[in-house]
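S.,

Sequence below, as promised.
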Amino acid sequence: MHSREARGGGLLSFPEAPLRSVRGALSYLLDLIFVPLCPICRGPLKDSGPFCEGCLRTIRRALPPICPQCGLPFPEGTEGHLCGDCLSGKYRFLLHRSYGIYDGGLREAIHRLKYGGDLLLVEPLGELLLEACEDLRDDGIDLLIPVPLHPRRLRERGFNQSLLLARHLSRRLGLLCEAEVLVKVKDTPSQTSLSPAERQRAVRGAFKVMKGERIREKRVLLVDDVFTTGATVNEASRVLLRAGAKEVLVITLARSVG
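The prediction came back faster than expected:
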């Protein structure tokens, strides 16, 4: 039987089982009040996944068959092969992989992060990006570099989503994230309405390498959120290779198709 230890102000001792019951009840109440929500639709999460089942069903993975260089998905039932752009030598990076196709819940999540400032999405989207890195883990990557924003755009947005994603990968992969090596010196216009040729012209000369000794003879993993025509990451790759990088690989959350 537990009782007060002494009249002189000793500590009270309570039974262990009731305390566990109280903690369990509090935990249950907190779960009722603070129901985990899907970061995309704000509906309740029924399991430990980052997104609800409904939103996950709208996310299409960028899985084989794909172009082995740029990762362009091909129709099911075909074989993976170099696409026309890669056969023509268009891209300077060694290879690119994306987690999924830029539509549905994945597009919505990226928009919420990028334009809505919902930083709670960094971790779940970072985990998707980590999953997309499975094909690259045996490639001997030396460091990560995020695609930078121009200072004006960074002031407006307040953060660089590619840097936040790269830092998440850095922690999970145990690789150095070099955020000051590649800078954007040209304030390019929004590329959403530009043709592929206009995009290439817009990004030409947009990037500059600082502290080039940090990438010399290194295998670099370039991190960005979306691969549309590839103009941005291709120009960044060209500049990194010119500055002495051994090879450049690219990882993105999503890619546009069609």
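Residues 16-33 form the longest helix (18 residues).

Coffee later?
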